[in-house]
UniProtKB/TrEMBL annotation:
The lineage of its organism: Bacteria, Pseudomonadati, Myxococcota, Polyangia, Polyangiales. GO terms for molecular function: electron transfer activity; heme binding; metal ion binding. InterPro entries: Cyt_c-like_dom, Cyt_c-like_dom_sf. It comes from Labilithrix luteola. Keywords: Heme, Iron, Metal-binding. PANTHER family: LIPOPROTEIN-RELATED (PTHR40394), QUINOL:CYTOCHROME C OXIDOREDUCTASE MEMBRANE PROTEIN (PTHR40394:SF2). Residues 96-187 form the Cytochrome c domain. The keyword Iron applies. This is ABC-type Fe3+ transport system protein.
Amino acid sequence: MGAIALAGLSAGCRGQSSKESPVFGIRNMYDQPKYQVQEESNFFSDHRTMRPLVEGVIAHDEDVDLGVSQGRLDDQTGYVLETPKEVVARVGGVEALQARGKARYNIYCAPCHDMAGGGQGMVTKHAQATGAAAFAPPTFHQDRLRHAPDGQIFATITNGKNNMPPYAMQIPVNDRWAIVSYVRVLQLAQPKLPEEKAPAPENKK
């Protein structure tokens, strides 16, 4: 008798698929009426389900300083030249900022920009091998990026550019500034690229 029960139990645990509907104890909590993200709403006059923030409301962790949150000057005329001192302080100093930046850079940036910032990461090489040469990011060691304000690099990480997606949601503000700081370390560690020479003028007869 025990052998039969054991055989029946084993047969019932073979993981066979079933066409039966799943069991829900309280079905109306599963099927309750609700709006999905980006779905059109007939309740609001603008027909948007996702509601904008109330004017003047600031998120608990939001930086109100434009220099910190956006990398821009208060009057919006340009970018801050250097990483804000308050960011350096709250991370624990320059060395801690650069160490954090290295760790974050190796996770989020190196796949495309490579470990040295030359723009030849594994993703880039794979894209080039499949014919997507336009995917290649610029090297950090060119003169233009060596002289770019820290705030501009921060804004690029935040908002993305060309094929590079925005990282505002994935990387916190302090970590974005830390990456900027580490990019400067990479630039100092690498020789400067030679300046591009203008083509020689053609000899006209």
